[in-house]
Structures are given as structure tokens and as C-alpha cells.
TrEMBL record:
Keyword GTP-binding assigned: yes
Tubulin/FtsZ 2-layer sandwich domain location: 2-95
Protein name as annotated: Tubulin gamma chain
Single GO BP term: cytoplasmic microtubule organization
Pfam family, one: Tubulin_C
Gene Ontology terms for molecular function: GTP binding
Subcellular localization(s) per the UniProt record: Cytoplasm, Cytoskeleton
Any single Gene Ontology cellular-component annotation: microtubule
Family: Belongs to the tubulin family.
């Protein structure tokens, strides 16, 4: 399930009608979390915002770009950024691998020396805290698939404030 989507399209020959059809098709295929609007944010531009000003002002580069643009007039570049709950599968695998490494004590020799602990404190406590925080992120992604996700928000804030005071 998707939490949010941003699409960026860059091209000179972008037809609004084609974009509208593609958005309608995408909305029917994409499943959003129940508490979120099913909006796909879209940004359209004629040239990349990532080109530096010097690249645009340099005549040699500009000439090369013009030739390249003539060759690819019909080309449209796109980028999609999304936040999706399917990342939880990867997070669970990472946590499982982490637990396996910790059970075997793998790679801990790099961190368990007296000088490191003098500078940074108890490294095993840091690892334990990091695992707990990562587990909370996994739970948060799992919980956000529920329609009542936003209803529990006030209770969670009270608990978090008490935890850190």
C-alpha cells in the first residue's frame, strides 16, 4: 500500500491528454492506505531542474545538448518517488539478519575494544537501542495500513512524551 507518490516528468513534447489518461490508469492500479487521499502528485517540466547554471550557460555544452535534444525530441524522462508499506518486507529481512549476526556475535570485534567504549559508551546498549528503534519503525509501517491509524495518534504522542522525560 502506498502512503504517497510523486511523479516528475521532463520533456518538451508532453501531451496533457496522455498524462491525464496515465494518471487515471495509475490511480486504478495503485492501492493507497485507507486513511490517505489517493492523490498522485505530479510535476511536469520542459528541462531537468538538476542541470547547473554553468551547464546551461556554457555554449559548447549547450550546443551538445541541442543536438542531443534533436535526436531525442520524442523522449520523456520520468522519476517516481513513493513511500510504500512494502518496504516492511525488506526491513523484516534486515532485522532477521541483524538478530542472526548478534546471536553469533559476528563483526562485534570491530566495536568491542576499550578505547571505543571510552569514547562512545556501552556499544552493546547502542546496538540494543538501535534494534528497538528499528523494530518500532517496522511496527509503524504495519500499523499505518489500518484505517484507524490516525485515531490512535494522540495516545502514542502521550506515551512517547512520557518515555523521553
Amino acid at each position: 500500500m502506498f502512503l504517497s507518490i510523486l511523479d516528475i516528468l521532463i520533456g518538451d513534447n508532453v501531451e496533457q491528454n496522455d498524462i491525464q489518461k496515465a494518471l487515471i490508469k495509475a490511480r486504478s492500479r495503485v492501492q493507497f492506505v485507507p486513511w490517505s487521499s489517493a492523490a498522485i502528485n505530479l510535476s511536469i517540466g520542459s528541462r531537468s531542474p538538476f542541470l547547473s547554471r554553468s551547464q546551461l550557460l556554457n555554449p559548447a555544452i549547450h550546443k551538445q545538448q541541442q543536438q542531443h535534444q534533436l535526436q531525442q525530441q520524442q523522449q520523456v524522462s520520468g522519476l517516481m518517488l513513493s513511500n510504500t508499506t512494502s518496504i516492511n518486507n525488506l526491513f523484516n529481512k534486515i532485522l532477521k539478519d541483524y538478530d542472526s549476526f548478534m546471536k553469533r556475535g559476528a563483526y562485534l570485534n570491530w566495536y568491542q575494544n576499550k578505547e571505543y567504549e571510552k569514547l562512545n559508551g556501552d556499544i552493546m546498549a547502542e546496538f540494543s537501542d538501535s534494534r528497538e528503534i528499528f523494530h518500532k519503525v517496522i511496527q509503524e509501517y504495519k500499523n499505518c495500513e489500518s484505517i484507524s491509524y490516525l485515531d490512535d495518534d494522540d495516545e502514542d504522542e502521550d506515551v512517547d512524551l512520557e518515555e523521553y522525560n
